């Protein structure tokens, strides 16, 4: 672990030297650039070493956004970032305001900082599984490879795997998922001129039936409910019949009508 960190530091130091040389050669011949990392900070610097025009200010630019600006006249400018180089890789530009402007380029270059879109993926038997890894860091990945634990490297040649990769992203498609064959851990491995990085995605393949379980569960629930309601209604019905007809008053009513009838008939007879 410590050896690895030391290695990274050494690599970084080397890289800074390289970028200084390249920066001096590629952009403006008078600017020396630098990247240093110390106590949780990254410091970028630009220094005009050759005789120069009158400077009226400085600017630091990253991704076409101005990070800071000042109106000092110094031949040296620096920009401080909280965090580690791995989190802030990219192309930065220092601008010396003069007529004309003098621009320097400072690259924070790191080995690939790979991560998986999802650490665990699920797929249904027979479907196509899609596993994706990305690398937001600079510089872009030059080579992506996929490996399956216990199976070695995967490639397009087998016909079951389709791998599509770009500088920032790689995608592994597994055709016709098989529970036995495809469940497991997959790793995406990235390489750029500064080193390598990787991430792991674990894939679970469910049987088709498993995908149906939630639906079957709902059907079963509905059936149980319907049965309960049905039984309840059936039990209630026999009690309700006499309740509705009101056992006591019914005979009275009929008696009353009988009496009335009798009276009418009696009256008629009279
Ligand atoms: C920074 O990276 C860009 C893009 O890869 C490259 O063209 C440029 O030369 C690099 N600059 C330095 C100073 O290394
Ligand atoms: C800038 O470069 C000059 C000449 O190379 C050097 O003397 C000076 O110390 C540098 N300034 C800083 C702040 O690094
Ligand atoms: C990588 O991502 C950046 C933004 O994060 C984008 O500007 C760039 O075009 C992407 N590069 C590739 C090769 O896809």
3D architecture notes:
By secondary structure, this protein is an alpha+beta fold. It has four helices and 16 strands. The strands form four sheets. Strands 9-16-15-11-12 form a five-stranded mixed β-sheet. A four-stranded antiparallel β-sheet has the order 4-3-6-7. A four-stranded antiparallel β-sheet has the order 8-10-14-13, with no helix packed on it. The longest helix has 38 residues. The relative contact order is 0.10. It binds 2-acetamido-2-deoxy-beta-D-glucopyranose (3 copies). The site of one 2-acetamido-2-deoxy-beta-D-glucopyranose has 3 residues, from loops.
Compact summary:
This protein has helices at about 1-25, 180, 210-245, 250-270; strands at about 30-40, 40-50, 55-60, 65-70, 75-80, 90-95, 100-110, 115, 120-125, 130-135, 145-150, 150-155, 160-165, 170-175, 185-190, 195-205.
Mean pLDDT: 81
Q: Helix- and strand-based class?
A: alpha+beta
| Beta-strand residue fraction | 35-45%
Strand order of the largest sheet: 9-16-15-11-12
Number of DSSP helical runs: 4
- Small-molecule binders: 2-acetamido-2-deoxy-beta-D-glucopyranose
Order of helices and strands: HEEEEEEEEEEEEEEHEEHH
Low-confidence stretches: 1-28, 247-258
Shape: elongated
- The helix content, as a percent range, equals 25-40%
Compute the gyration radius: what is it?
40 Å
**Terminal residue distance:** 124 Å
Largest sheet report: 5 strands, mixed
- Beta strands, count: 16
């Amino acid at each position: 672990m410590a050896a690895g960190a030391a290695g990274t530091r050494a690599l970084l130091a080397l890289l800074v030297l390289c970028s200084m040389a390249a920066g001096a050669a590629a952009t403006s011949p008078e600017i020396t650039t630098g990247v240093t990392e110390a106590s949780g900070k990254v410091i970028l610097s630009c220094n005009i070493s050759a005789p120069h025009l009158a400077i009226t200010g400085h600017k630091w630019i990253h991704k076409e956004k101005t990070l800071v600006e000042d109106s000092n006249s110094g031949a040296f400018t620096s920009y401080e970032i909280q965090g580690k180089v791995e989190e802030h890789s990219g192309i930065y530009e220092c601008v010396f305001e003069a007529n004309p402007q003098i621009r320097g380029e400072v690259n924070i270059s790191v080995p690939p900082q790979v991560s998986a879109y999802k650490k665990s993926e699920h797929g249904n038997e027979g479907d196509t599984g899609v596993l994706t890894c990305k690398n937001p860091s600079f510089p872009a990945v030059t080579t992506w490879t996929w490996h399956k634990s216990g199976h070695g490297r995967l490639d397009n040649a087998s016909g079951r795997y389709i791998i599509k990769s770009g500088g920032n992203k790689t995608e592994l498609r597994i055709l016709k998922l098989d529970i036995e064959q495809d469940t497991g851990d997959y790793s995406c491995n990235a390489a750029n001129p500064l080193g390598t990085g990787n991430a792991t995605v674990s894939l679970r393949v469910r049987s088709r039936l498993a995908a149906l379980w939630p639906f079957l569960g709902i059907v079963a629930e509905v059936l149980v409910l319907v049965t309960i309601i049905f039984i309840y209604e059936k039990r209630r019905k026999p009690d309700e019949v006499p309740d509705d007809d009101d056992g006591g008053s019914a005979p009275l009513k009929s008696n009353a009508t009988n009496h009335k009838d009798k009276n009418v008939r009696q009256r008629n007879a009279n």
